[in-house]
Give the backbone structure.
Amino acid sequence: MIRAAAIVAVAIGAWLHPRSFGVAPNERGWSQAPYRAPNERGWSQAPYRIRQHSPRPAPPADPTNRVADDPRAAKLGQRLFFEKRWSKNGEISCATCHEPERAFADAKPLGEGLAKLERHTPSLLDVAYNRWFFWDGRADTLWSQALGPFENDAEMGGTRVGAVALVASDATLRAEYTALFGAPPDVGDAARFPRDAKPSESNAAANALWLAMHADDREAIDRAASNLAKCVAAYERRLVTGPSPFDRFVQGLDDGDPAKLGALSPSAQRGLELFVGKANCRLCHSGPNFSDGEFHSIGVAPLAGPPPRDSGRHAGAKLVREAPFNAASRFSDAPDGDVAQRLATVRSGPEMWGEFKTPSLRNVGRTAPYMHQGQFATLEAVVRFYSTMEGALAVGHHQETVMQPLQLTDAEIEDLVAFLRSLDGADVADELQRAPSDD
Amino acid sequence: MTPMRTNSISLSRLSSLPRRSSLAQRASRSLLAASTLLAALAAGCGSPKHAATRGATPDAKAAVEAGPAPVAPRAAPDWSGAHEVVGSTGTFLVRWRTTPDAIPMNEEFTLRAWVFAADDREHALTDVELVVDAGMPEHKHGMARAPKQTRRPDGSFDAAGMLFHMPGRWELYFDVVRGELTERAQVRVDLE
C-alpha cells in the first residue's frame, strides 16, 4: 500500500516539484514521471498553490498581550482554563465545552453551557493563528475573546468581580497572578465589590450592581480581569498541533523522499489536486492555516430552518469596533499596533449579513460536526453540500457569489474527504490537556 | 460611450515565486539604493566627498570618486517606477505603487497614488480628490476592509489597510474627483 502510494506521489510530485521542469525525466530515476511544460508564467501554478499551505510558521506574536508567551502566564491560564469555581453554578469551566479529548471542542452541533447556545463550539486547536475570534469575529484578540464566555449567562454565567475575588482569595492563583502583574485588587469588601456585578445587556440586576460601583473600582476590576484573560490566552496559544500527513507530503515534494510522499494516500493526493484545482477550496481556505481568516456566507440554512436569523459578521463588525477590550482599548498592550490599526478599517454593511468566519481546516477530521451551527455531521456531508449546494439559501443582491455547485463525482468527494483527513496534526502535549499537574 | 480603459497587471509571478522574487527584489533594492545614493550625491546635498565617506559602500564611493562630474542635479520623482493607468475619459493619469511592492495574498498592504492631468505627467495635481477601492467582480464582493485614506502634504494619497483576502482576479478602482467631474481608472490584478 505504501509502495503504491509512493508511486502515485512520485508521479504527482514530479508535476508539482518545481525542479522537475526542464530536467531529464530520469534524473532521480523517476522514469515514469510525466513531463509538463511550464505555463505562460514559466512556472506551474500547482507547486505554489500547495506550498501556500505548508510548512506552517510559528503562530504570530500578539503584542496586545505582553504575557502572551510568558510560561508563567500560560501556567496560570491553564489553571484558569480548567477552573470551575468562577462559573455561576461552580460546575462549568472553559474545558466543559472545549474538551481536550474532543480536540478542544464538544462534538455537539450547538454549544451547551448553562443553556443551549445558538452557535457551534469551535475547536481551540491552533487558535493562535486566528485573525478574528468567535464565528462573527467580534473579538480581535484571543485574550479579549476569553472574557466573553465566562460572563455570558448562557455559558458560564460568572462575573469579572467574582473571578477577581476568586484569584484574590486562592493562595496559588493569587501568588501566580502577583508574580506577573502585582497584587490583585483588594476586593474583600463585598458591598463595594458585589460578586454578582457585571456589565450586561441581558442581566439588568447584574448590570445595576456594576454601574453602582465606583468608576475607579470598575477600572481596577476590568484591568485585573483583562490580565486573567491574557493568561488564558497565553495557555491557549500553546495548543498548537504538530505536522500533519499533508505537511510531511509537502516535505516529500521538496526532498523526493518516497516515505514522506507516501504520507498521503493516492486518494488523498487526488483530493489535494481537487482542493487547489477544480474544487478551488483554496479561495477561502488559503494559507498555512487553511483559512483566509475572513468572513463569507456559504448559504447553509440554519438548524431551525430558514429564514436566517443570525446576522453573523454584520453585527460582529460593529461589536468588535466598540468592544471595551479590543486591541485599541486601554487594556491592550499595543493600542496603536497593527491589530488596533486593523480595527479602523473593518468594513460593515448589509452584504455581510449571515457571514461567518472561515474555519481552519487543520484537524478538521477531529472536529465534527461542521459549520457555525454544526449543521453537517460528517465531512462527506460538507463536501456534498459544496458539490450540489442543495438546500442552500439564495443569496440576496448584496451578497457575494463565491459559492457555485462543484458538481463532484462520488469518487471525487471521497478523494477530497481523504485529503481533508490528512490535515489532522499531531495532538498537543498531554500536559496541556489537563489542569497543571502540581495541583 | 467611451469604453473603460483598463490596465492589467499580473502579480502572481512576483508573489508566487518567493525565492526568485526575493532575490530579484533584493537586487532591485540594491540597484535602487545605489541609484538613490548616487542621485543624492549628484544633487549636491552637502559635500560630495563628505557624503560619500559617511554613507557610501566602498564600491559606490569609488564610483563617485572615479566617475565624471555630476551633470544632472535632479532627483527622481517619488512616483518614479510606479504603475500607471489613465482614467475612463482620458482626463487623468493615476500613478500608483504598493508597499510591499508585490501585492501580498491575504496580508494588509498600503497603496500610494498620485494623480496627473493626462497631458501633463510631470506635475502631480493637488486640486483633486481620490478614492481607492477594489473588488472581485467574478464574486461580486469588495475588500473585507475599508482602507484608511489620507492625502499627504505633497499631494499624493495613501490608502492604508488594503487587503486582497482571496486569490483570483481583483480590480483596483481609482475614482478621481475634481469639481463636477468624476473619472474612474481601474486596473486588473490577478493574484495567485
Remarks:
- Residues 77-191 of chain B form a domain with the Immunoglobulin-like fold (CATH 2.60.40.1930).
- The CA atoms of residues 116 and 124 of chain B lie 5 Å apart.
- The radius of gyration of chain B is 19 Å.
- Chain B has a mean pLDDT of 73.
